[in-house]
Amino acid sequence: MRVMSLCRIVLFWSFSANFFLFGQTSNAEKFTLSGSVLNSATGEPVKRALLTLSPIYQGQALAPRELTPSPVFSDPGGAFSFAGLSAGRYRITAQKPQYRQDPEAGTIELGPSRANFEVKLDPLATLEGTVLDTAGNPIQAVSVQLIQASVLSGRRTFRVDRSVSTDDRGRYRLWNLQPGSYYVRLSGRAGGTRTFMGENAPLVDWPQVVAPIYHGRAVDRASATPLVLGLGQRATIDFNEPLKPAFKVKGLLTNFVPHAKTVVQLLTPDGQPVSARVAVNEINGRVEVNDVTTGDYLLRATQGEGDGRLQAEADVRVSASHVEGVELQLQRGIEIQVSLNCDQDNQARDRVPCRGSMELRSAGESNYAVSDGGGRLKFRNVNPGVYSWRATSFGGYVAAASIGAEALTPGSTIHVRAGLQPEKVELVVRSDGGVIEGEISPGIRQPSLGILAVPNFESLSGPTEGQSLPDGRFFVQPLAPGDYTVYAHPRLREIPYLEPEALRNLTNGFRVTVTSKGRSEVKITAVSE
After folding, report:
1. Where does a domain end: 430, 462, 477?
2. Which residue spans traverse the membrane (predicted)?
């Protein structure tokens, strides 16, 4: 009974203290916040934007319901106002279709009241156009893909950000597009995998279709010209493409499981999907791919999901007639076993578990795996192909790598072949790495400045990003012993520094030597361009 009473007292005082921390009582002085919502690109007011004001309560945007003000809309002149606010710190956000706010929401301190506070919204871009044949006639139901090019951890990535089909006028439109670099591609006739039962596939024959092509008439992404979209930009891209004869690819899925979810894809040699209408008989696994133009392709089928997924693929060449008799044998996905051999001393072993990660990348896909506490990791359902690789260790550095009896170097690849189980990958991890510590000169400090340590020798870890502190200090760890060049770049997140060409373009580097278990000092006095 005494315990329950004590708990009630603690809960009461805890709630009371939290309540009075923000604004104290309903009789405390109240404040107002007013200002305007502006288009960051033009400076014009933005009307009908929804603004939300959230008290920052014990470091989080949480507070008792009665302390959170109701959202408001900006008026036709972009003006807004909140009234009856308690003193304290708030986070303010604004939302409107076809706009975005800075990812880091603005904060404001109230007490006294604030006026003329500006909230800026970035206008998003749009892309539109028409797809016509060479005679000027509209082509409907063509899939238009917008492939976004970005950089993630020093590596270029490409993904289909948006896809839309042309209407009966051959027109398309994509909106709410973030600023950035894109590739625009016609990927063929819009379609997908459909299942059926019976003798005949439920698809209408189209004698002619548009072949996959990038804007600028490039057949692959490597030779295509990117489209760079800015804030609020309204871009137009039109296509005038010849119609080409359409053929079919027919085949049979063996080891087929009736009625299980099945997806069939056609891929170009560079790993890009081709839009096509696919019919799969869900009883016997018969496959029919429509709308295929001449060329070399990879036909890939998957059935089921998760660890029990079945997969199959076959190379297909389409010349001047339909292709028949393609057999795809469904089987369990390929697994790749990886083990970490952590060469740690007793002191390091007590502090850092033997853990790491590895990534496999090919033209069309990426696989990523993280080890368990025992230093083992596994890739599941890996498709056949040729993969580049990169491995990292948490608390150490990768000193050596091999697959079977073959040593892996930074530029080597891993070949995964259909029906063959790859040999185990072995990673040797050492814990005797050193640390680079340094300081950025006060005159060049800026919040976005990133630190990159580039080895001047063949290193399996490759370039490594550092951690920056608010006081201008930074550190990079752990690193293999050797000579490095350290760069400070204001847009490091946009630099594909895993590519040699990108590294050659960096300037104003500072040399430093890392020793085993040592700490090396360097001072950054210039920013890389």
Report:
1. 430
2. none
CA separation for the pair 474, 471 (Å, rounded): 9
Which two tokens mark 266? 């056609």
Confirm whether pTM is higher than 0.90: no
- Same domain assignment for residues 64 and 133: no
Residues 186, 293 share a domain? yes
Q: pLDDT for 201-243, tens place per residue?
A: 777 788 999 999 999 999 988 899 999 999 999 999 999 999 9
Give the DSSP letter string of 323-361.
Answer: EEEEEEE-EEPEEEEEEEEEE--HHHHHHS-S-EEEEEE
SS3 for 462?
coil
Mark which of 123, 148, 178 sits at the end of a domain.
123
- State the pairing for strand pair 50-55/88-95: antiparallel
Euclidean distance between CA atoms 184 and 196, whole angstroms: 33
- Is position 529 within any domain? no
341 CB contacts (<8 Å, ≥6 apart)? 375, 426, 427, 428, 429
How confident is the model over 84-109, as pLDDT tens digits? Answer: 998 888 989 999 999 998 765 678 88
Residues 300/275, Cβ–Cβ less than 8 Å: no
Place of tokens 């990768």: 398
DSSP collapsed to 3 states, 44-111: CECCCCEEEEEECECCECCCCHHHCCCCEECCCCCEEEEEEECCEEEEEEEECCCEEECCCCEEEEEC
| Cis amide leading into 478 (omega within 30) | yes
CATH of the domain at 265: 2.60.40.1120
Q: How many domains does the chain have?
A: 4
pLDDT in tens, 282-309: 999 999 999 999 999 999 999 988 778 8
Phi, psi values for residue 425, rounded to 5°? -95, 130
Please report whether residue 298 resides in a domain: yes
Residue ranges making up the domain that contains 483: 434-524
Residue 442 main-chain phi, psi, to 5 deg? -55, -35
Q: Classify strands 31-39 and 114-123 as parallel, antiparallel or unpaired.
A: parallel
Q: How far apart are CA 262 and CA 282, in angstroms?
A: 8
Q: In what order do the strands lie in the sheet with 106-110?
A: 72-73, 50-55, 88-95, 106-110
